[in-house]
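Example record for the data management plan.
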Amino acid sequence: MAREILAKSNPPETLLQHTESCLSVFRSIRKSLPYLPTLCGETAFFEHLFYAVALHDLGKAATGFQQKWEHWGYRHEILSAGFVGFLNGLSEFYQRGIALAIISHHKGLSEIRERFATTLPVGAEEFFKRRNELLPNLEFVCQWLRILPDLAAKYLDHPLSMPHLLERIDDFLDAYKFGVRWYLATWEDDERTTLHSTYGIFLRGFLRACDHLASGGQDQIRQGIQEVLPRLGLTKLRAFQERSHTLVGNALLSAPTGSGKTEAALLWTERNQDSGRRIYYVLPYTASINAMTRRLSYYFGEDNVGVLHGKASYFIYKTLLERNYSQEVAQDFAYKIQDLTRKIYRPLKVLTPFQILKAFFGVKGWETMLSEMAGGLFIFDEIHVYEPHTTALILKTIEHLMKIDAKFLFLSATFPHFLKEKIQEILPDVVEQALDEKIEEDRKLLHTPRHRVKLLNGEIVENLSLIQDEIKKGKRVLVVCNTVKRAQEVYQCLKETVISSALLHGRFILRDREAIERKLEKVQLLVGTQTVEVSLDLDFDVLFTEPAAIDALIQRFGRVNRRGTKGVVSVHICTVGSDKDKYFYDINRTKLTLEALQNGEELTEQRVNELVEVVYANGYNESEQKQFQLAWTNFEAVIRDLKPFDESGRDEDFWNLIRSIEVVPIKFEEEYLLLKEEKKFFEAIQYFATLSFAQGAKLRRSQRLDWRSDEKYWVADSAYSEEFGLLLDEHEKGVGIID
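Corresponding structural encoding:
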């Protein structure tokens, strides 16, 4: 090169070094995901993406940029996109597509139009001024254009035509007028092209993926997971696992908890993997996601498995601390590990459905997220647990992902028939796989009981003596209540009758919840809420629970005699709940469950499935169906309005899906702020507790929840104890929230 032009200043990296790193990422994407041209309907897609990557930073050759960097006051992407005008052998349409990808690879088109539109005199004058800053480096620019065929041969595996050379600055293309003005006009006139659809999404999405991953110090994505069976360490497959290993395409798999559904799902991915397709393991709860991440990392290696949820970085940080990393090093590594996971790097991600929904709300980076999902293999575990609104969003997302060749496997111990029908409506070819009565091994799974139903008259507080009797027998007892307040009340009554006990619910600060979870294997008594339904490793001897719908009860049963090694154990179900249950459960569904259960009956897998069908015979109730339909219709409109090369501005709509807020109990506010000041951010997070929007609103009405706008966090004036968690009805003594 005629002179050294830098792409980055700290640390210094030349434009050629950075671009070749980006092209190396491009090459790995091309080889891992060879089906992309077919999916976007453009056979020369990889050639167009090559040009976008090769030219995306060439505007940095402007002298002003090289001298002032972020203080330059202009966008190098606008100049970079202008070099598209020198490419040979491309139609005007494809030149526009490449220009759009380049000009928007940092900022969306809306921001570019607002600040740099060359259709306005001030924008045109600024463009001409910045364009002229390329002249001192004209020799460098021409040399760059000359090496494009060689770069193509190296990274595309075949050469491309030699571009025209920049001889007069007046020949330089105004990419805004050429690409952006045309694109926005056709969008507004509803004259949609492939650039307004998948092709446009892929161009911007994969250009940003290449740029961001190279900037993160990586020059290739991890290869897709091809071999699964040898990594699972199974000496023998169950019959239903063998069948899963032969399933091609979309499928529903129903099998008991603890029978090996996860391994069956992974075997399905092996059968459907034909290149480097990315795998997404979707779970509803953070606790189960963290546990599954550890499990899959053991199978496939930590560098191949990423975790995505609201506290994923914290989970990684704590994992590193357990390995004796210092706090400072663990914090730094956690950020780096999660940065790569958010990029298109790891071939297997364990995540909540909200991490998928995020792309369809058009938040920043949505094209990259969606591009990576193209052709993906999605495992939805426990699909039945979501409320109607979220279920509608998930199914609508699946309907659109299907159009870019994603494949889906749905897992559950129990599939209500109405939910199967909703899945079949959007995936008509979905194959249903259940245990087969004709196969002895499956028959044993279907008909071997683990639990015996015992119905108890009255509320749980009226049956405390029975719980105490089981404790006296030396049994490990699990008590599940429907509300935090009731769980706190029951725990207060029982804790003195046992040597070791714990209370677990969602209103502990993170530090205390982790401490409680660490000791759960050793406690004789655990009182909890629905939170215990998602703790994977619990295995108690006997259960006492408030009444709930059959699917919730099944989750609770699964925490007792989990592996079936204790014979048939009793699960006690009270027939009366508290007056607050109506805010959390469909009371009619709970009533149907109690009517369907027979006192003294032993529950087999087949009987459980029968109960589910009885309780959910009519599917959603009227209110739930309205929620489902409204979410389905509204979300379709959101997706329809997604505009490639731009962000939607719907970030707040997405975050409103997370119907909870993180608060710092006022007694911990000083410690929280001190840790933040010391930049110990993960240590500070430990002082967060979670409240629902409704609980937060209630505290605000009584002026007991305040937004600290300077530091951007909520603080709650509620009493708190390490043993009981947040006590929402009590003030913290000696501290006032309103200064």
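Summary line stored alongside the record: The radius of gyration is 29 Å.
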